[in-house]
Specification:
The structure is a single chain. Helices cover 22% and strands 31% of the residues. It is α/β, with parallel strands linked by helices. The strands form four sheets. The chain has a six-stranded antiparallel barrel. A hairpin with a 2-residue loop joins strand 14 and strand 15.
Amino acid sequence: MTRKKVVVGMSGGIDSSVAAMLLVEQGYDVIGATLKIWEEGEYLDGEWHDRSCCKIGLARYAADRLNIPYFVWDAHKEFKNWVVDEFCNEYMRGRTPNPCVRCNEKIKFALLIEKAIGIGADYIATGHYARITCNKENNKFYLRRGADTEKDQSYFLYRLTQNQLSRIIFPLGEYTKPEVLDIAGSLDLPLDEIRESQEVCFVTQDGYQEFLSNKVPASVSPGKFVTPSGNIVGEHKGIAFYTVGQRRGLGVSAGERLYVININAPKNEIVLGKEEEVYTRGLIASDIHTISGEPMREAVRLLARIRYRHEASKAAITPIGEGRQRVIFDEPQWAITPGQSIVYYDGDMVIGGGIIESPIH
């Protein structure tokens, strides 16, 4: 019987290495691969302290330990076009993007599947903490939260398609992080050298503001802090340094605590307000995607998350035309941030989501 061939996206981290190990033990024909997403000089072979989420030296080491073939596929042009350029453009618009969502959609899954099919593989696999189930009666695939609720990464995966889900395996979906660490011990990985991946993998240790100051100087041009009524209360360092809900580092003297409640990029202004003004009951979302592939035509009540570490909250979602939705929460939410993703759940099942355009005040 021919073994099913699986390409495992290996980042050099513990999770993807253990995912590959589990698939080897389950009898799959496993191939390791890393998508190289940056130019030479950023992700160097053997550099185990790289900030990036893809460490080629460690990935190759793990593949050697497992005695599986290993490839490095260049993807830096696609990564720049789909992820880095959008990251810069969003900050120029005064928004706070989540590059991991776009990277998963366009690079880690779409491109990896394309490469895997090119070498005759049946599936791809990654070390994400999420689960996929299939209804055999209608052959529909469902994306579900990982068993480890603390590590669950389904939020970042809501843009996967039915075709992609049919070709993806998440070996860690039923495991907890402590269980994965126990398994990793048998791989003899240098665990002390491996750090958790950073949220923005392609920026330097100087931070994303330094990155943007080089790529998009206008995003770090000084401007005015203003109140909702338009009164000037200070000067900011550049819109890239701020996000909705921020209080620290404003450098504004006032009789009460002030928070960022809006970023007006065309005017290069940061709007400051009181704590209660950071809370809003709703938002407008666009660029909607559903796991089923079928549009949400009717109003529906679901749980919704407005950021990765946000506790899912009850909300009413209503289509309003032109690919947009109005979302009204049962309770006011803190710091609804344009550019971030809102993701909808029915229990532990991901329904879909979209990009937050604006809060509804």
